[in-house]
Structure formats: C-alpha cells, structure tokens
Amino acid sequence: MNEVTPTPELEAFDYKSDVNPVWCPGCGDYAVLSAITKALAELRLARENVAVISGIGCSSRIPAYTSVYGFHGIHGRALPIAQGLKLARPDVTVLCAGGDGDGFSIGGNHFMHACRRNIDLTYIVMDNTVYGMTKGQASPTTEADWRESKLTPEGPGVPPFQPLDIALAAGASHVVRAFSGRVQMLTKYIVEAIQHPGFSFIQVISPCVTYRPEMRALKTRVHDGFAETSTNRLEARRRLLDDDGYSLGVLFKSVEPSYKPCATSDEAVADLERQFVL
C-alpha cells in the first residue's frame, strides 16, 4: 500500500455520492458498496487519492455511488484501465469493481494477465452467477444444470468458471472469497486487500434475488472454510480440491514481485517521437 497522509475526519458516508443506487431491493451489491466505503474510512484515505474503476453490469455502477475518483469503462475492460492508472499514478489507491459476466467472460483474458502482472490494486468481483442487467441469462459461473433462463432451458451444459482456481494458477498474490451478507468480514478483507502490495482478488458471493431468488438461502450455505491463510500456492490449490464453492476467507497471500514499467527519460521519449516525424 502507498504511504499517504491520513484524513482524520471522514466517515463511511463521506465516501458515498449523492446518487442513489438503483439496484433491486435485496441485491447483495448494496452491502458491497457499504463495505467499500467502510474500508476507505477505516484506512482514512483522502478521497482525491482513491479511484474506483468498473466495466459494465449491475455491480459496475459503483463508481457513480462513491465520492472518490471513478471511471465507468466498457464491458470487460475495467482491469486494463485500472492497471494503466496504477502504473501511471502509483500514488493512487486503485480499486476495480465488476461482476462475474464482466470479469470472467469478455474480461476473462484481462483477468488472467492482471493476476500474473501482480500490479498493486484491488479487484472486487460481485459474483451472482447470472447476468442480472440483461434479464437473467446464465453467466460464466452459473451451474451447468441451472434451467431458469429462457435462453438455456436445459441449463448452460458446461462446468462453471472457477475464479479462485484461475487466480491462483495465473499468479495473483492475494486471493479471497467473501459473502455480501457478512459486511463486517468483507470490510476487513477489503482493508487487507488495499494494504497488500500486489494484485488482490476478492470474489464476493453477492446474491441476485430478482433473477435467482433461490440465492436468498446462501446465508445458510456459506461457511468459514479458509480459516487459515496459506502462503504456499500449491497448498492453496490443493485446498480448493475439496471446496464446495461457499468457503469464505483469505485462501492465499504472499508478497511477490509486482510488475513496474521501466523508467523512461524525457530524452528517450523525444527520440521515439522523432522516429515518427514525417
């Protein structure tokens, strides 16, 4: 985490904008927004030193609901924007927010390479296992036999994408699963992720009660499965072999090299520009 001058008087509500969220009643994203603002307040970060970047989808509305700098990008492209910002302005605390469709489908390739670059930012994915904004289609993390979508009445028919497995295999140095129904725990995880000097990935199980009303029961299914954080990548992957998809906690955490661009002098830039003069 970058050393910044603390802001002593800001509370969680100070990090919220005047724009009222338009999520459906009962959406888990309300709790995620609350956890983000609570985490920023706990860290006492100046609002001008924080940026929230998003793509497209219900969860990607979050920048509009905060009072820090924000950028609402295009579908699947939040991570390239967030990484570019962090590399250009390493003094800024960068959070990236999105959903399972935005992050693991059209943005899947960017997700893998962001993990391996290990740039110092926090990626929060609100995983509701459905495309909510476009009326309930199956997403990359939807179960193979989910038959409630008119587009896939027999179910998607393919195994769901496994975010934690991919994050570990691709090289993320801080891997977490949380539940939106446990705001205090999620706030703690976001604080730790921001403080971690590398790429932090938080998969937040965030129910969509409109298109997947059965997800109301998730609060009885989630459990503290990752009680002890592993610092060994192979051991963490072994633990996922017995994972039921509802284990919560910090699965893996390790301080590893972070990608940084080579320093470029003004003369080198000028020489490059001269090569393109017609």
Secondary-structure blueprint:
Blueprint: H1 29-43, E1 50-54, E2 69-72, H2 78-88, E3 93-99, H3 100-104, H4 108-117, E4 122-127, H5 163-170, E5 174-179, H6 183-195, E6 200-205, E7 223-226, H7 233-240, E8 247-253, H8 266-274
Parallel strand pairs: 1-2, 1-3, 3-4, 4-6, 5-6, 7-8
Antiparallel strand pairs: 5-8
Helix pairs in contact: 1-6, 4-5, 5-7
Describe the 3D structure:
The structure is a single chain. The chain starts with 28 loop residues before the first helix and ends with a helix. The mean pLDDT is 92. The chain has helices at 29-43, 78-88, 100-104, 108-117, 163-170, 183-195, 233-240, 266-274, and strands at 50-54, 69-72, 93-99, 122-127, 174-179, 200-205, 223-226, 247-253. The protein is of the alpha/beta class and 278 residues long. It is 28% helix and 16% strand. The chain is globular, with a radius of gyration of 19 Å. Helix 1 (29-43) packs across helix 6 (183-195) and helix 5 runs antiparallel to helix 7. Strand 5 (174-179), helix 6 (183-195) and strand 6 (200-205) form a beta-alpha-beta unit.
Describe, in short, the structure shown.
This protein is of the alpha/beta class and 278 residues long. The chain is built from 8 helices and 8 strands.
